[in-house]
Amino acid sequence: MTSETSFYPAALNGHLAKAADLIPLAFAGFAHFTAIQVRDRKIRGLDLHLKRLNNASLAFFGRALPDEDLRVHIRQAIGAGPADQSLTVTVFSPHGEFTPDSMDVEPAVMVRTAAPSDGPTGPLRLAVVEHERPLANFKHVGESGKTYYLHQAVRDGFDDAAFIDRHGRLSEATIWNLVFWDGEAVIWPKAAMLTGTMMGTVQRQLERLGVPQRHEEITLSRLKEFSGAAVMNSWTPGIAVTVIGSTAIPQAKTFLGLLHAAHGAEPAEPVLIC
């Protein structure tokens, strides 16, 4: 089914979800997900989204749905809505949480869609919070700390928050990956964090374009060394960051242009309509 309307459905295991299906999920905290931006019914980095879901399912549930099954669910969701949309694939145990019954079972999948988003325009000013996300290498639900620290940052006059770990290293921001520029190379933080799908597509395209990249431990004292900083997530390959904590960072337009060019070089995979 195809539609150019603004109808954004939610589907559970391939079927249109009813209210009764969604009520048990309202308080579910043992689940993982990936967030995808769909444009013209095409997706960039779909292989990275599928890999993320596979790895997390094996870690959480001991089993993973085949990639082709997930592709079918994604195609159905895209086909039921407009050509441009935001799409979230959430994988969870039908046996709930706080029980061993959720181990070693085939997980269920919910796909929900919403209006497309490109994120804020920026530049952003980030407060610094000492925080380490649990199971940081997975994109999972139930992380109230991210919203809590966002709210605290806004109350303190910032736009959002960046996290620093117990070793004094910057890792990521609330819902963002951090990335820096020294004028010649792209610098990625070295710490426990989520490797974003946007981060993955930008990294491989920067490599293809021959742009130097490094992973380094970045402390607050090192911020003055950089000539640019940005955040990225599924919404966007780069929004300028001009303040982290008490340190001002130049807004490097060349750097931002490079990140966006790398994202644009990533092939957009057509998603066939069922």
Structural features, described:
The protein has 274 residues and is of the alpha+beta class. Helices cover 26% and strands 29% of the residues. It has six helices and 16 strands. It has helices at residues 19-22, 46-61, 67-79, 144-155, 197-209, 253-265; strands spanning 10-12, 15-16, 31-38, 42-44, 85-92, 108-114, 124-130, 160-164, 170-173, 177-181, 186-189, 213-216, 228-233, 236-244, 247-248, 268-270. Strands 7, 8, 9, 10, 11, 12, 13, 14 and 15 form a nine-stranded mixed sheet that branches. Strands 2-1-6-5-3 form a five-stranded antiparallel sheet, covered by helices on one side. A two-stranded antiparallel ribbon has the order 4-16. A hairpin with a 2-residue loop joins strand 1 (10-12) and strand 2 (15-16). Helix 5 (197-209) crosses helix 6 (253-265). It is globular. The termini are close together. Mean pLDDT is 92; it is low at 1-5.
What attributes characterize this protein structure?
alpha+beta; five-stranded antiparallel sheet; disordered N terminus; nine-stranded mixed sheet; 274 residues; single chain
Produce the secondary structure layout.
Elements: E1 10-12, E2 15-16, H1 19-22, E3 31-38, E4 42-44, H2 46-61, H3 67-79, E5 85-92, E6 108-114, E7 124-130, H4 144-155, E8 160-164, E9 170-173, E10 177-181, E11 186-189, H5 197-209, E12 213-216, E13 228-233, E14 236-244, E15 247-248, H6 253-265, E16 268-270
Parallel strand pairs: 7-8, 7-14, 11-12
Antiparallel strand pairs: 1-2, 1-6, 3-5, 4-16, 5-6, 8-9, 10-11, 10-13, 13-14, 14-15
